[in-house]
Amino acid sequence: MKATRLLGVVLAAALIAPAAGAAELAGTLKKIKETGAITLGHRESSIPFAYLDGHQKPVGYAIDLCMKVVEAVKAELGMPDLEVRMQPVTSANRIPLMQNGTIDLECGSTTNSLQRQEQVAFGPTYFVVNITAAVKKDSGIRTLADLNGRTIATSSGTTSVPLLKHYERTAKIDVKEIYGRDHAESFLLLANDRAAAFVMDDILLAGQVANSRNPQDYVILAESLRSEPYGMMLRKDDPQFKALVDRAVGAVMTSGEIRKIYAKWFTSPIPPRGVNLNFPPTPAIEGAFAEPNDRGV
Amino acid sequence: MNYHWNWGVFLQEAPEGGVRYWELLVAGLGWTLAVSCLAWVIALAAGVLVGTLRTVPGRLLPGLAAAWVELFRNVPLLVQMFLWYFVLPELLPPLKRLLADADPTTAQFAAAVLCLGLFTSARIAEQVRAGIRSLPRGQREAAAAVGLTTAQAYRHVLLPMALRIVVPPLTSEAMNLIKNSSVALTIGLAELTFRARELGEYTFSYFEAFTAATLIYVAIAMSANRAMAWIERRVAVPGYIAGGGR
Prior knowledge:
The complex is a heterodimer. Chain A is of the alpha/beta class. Helices cover 39% and strands 22% of the residues of chain A.
């Protein structure tokens, strides 16, 4: 067993080493080498993946994982003093900024979808979400079907909107929907009773609820519209950088180091207010850790 | 930069089912036009009134009009939109109960029209005030000399001339208003920019979506510009300062 694994490592090293050493740098790695800097795109309110802490500094689970990639880039290019620039992005501008070269790696809560893979590439899945709804406890809503005739808030430009429409059709329920500009604003629509539910990824809902004024007033429905994998986004058709990202993040997962990072953000108090999301890994997340992959939905 | 242009995206079916993306853009254009037109009516009516009041004799009315202008001109449009949509209903419980039963789009539309109309009215008021101030003092005095009251002097002498003078700056305001209407997307109104963003989000064809939106905005703004130029020529008084390009 040990011998075969060792053999595998040696083989892999033999395959990778000459490729990395001999081949000309291309794409993102070439750009990083030439400019002496790597730019990470990050979200500002995707708790706990990438958000701003009390000092307006971007922190989070995805940021920690991205820094592992940065370390691998430093080692690969022999640039210990590599400058790391942080660029805030939104769900609407993250893809154009990736394509036009403003950011080199996106660390946030981006769903790895097959449609998006036509425009960009993704690193290994580091989280799997279920899309569901947050409602107020006293609303009496316990299933998604109870939303019939109610107003639903969601954030514009996220994959939950088409899903909701799809569910709407299959379940023959009739809902009105309003859009918030970002997750905080969508949650405000729910908190102010302008909407009966906020449909979004379960972990983002948990983040909004945990940080709200009265977390005990809200409940997240157990039903799921769909599961979606999250991955860090990079430019398409850039095999060198993609291999490096896969290697760096894959190593964190297979070595078990991922559990420490996961626990730090999902089952411990996190900044800025020391709230604990209490979100232990689901079976789907365990699966992604056990077998690192970049399969989209 | 290696971007794969895909102009066929407008013919693809949107995830909402049954509609194509170009139809969503057209629906968005409809909201943009509806918001802009209604807001323009409010802006013009309130702007002319407030601008006129800034120039009347006395202290109270000019003071109130000045306060109006400072309030709506100094608060950023984005903030005003947020206040009208999120904060106002919290302050007025009856309004909030009304909104709870109403179609959510109605609330967004009303907030956007009011916000844009009043914001633009402050700017128009300043143009109108400048127009009235630019008239020779003799006009006001001549009106008084023939026995017109202040209201009559404004109605028959000052405003007809002043409004002709300010048609060119009003054209800019009309074009600004159309472009400012995109701010309504921040309260979730599905107008043109909202739809372009949505198209980009679903298909990732951002450049195609915003190229189309840009062309549409240019077309609307140019039409507004031409319409105002036509009005300018129609109402021109031959031989006077605002004679137009004849």
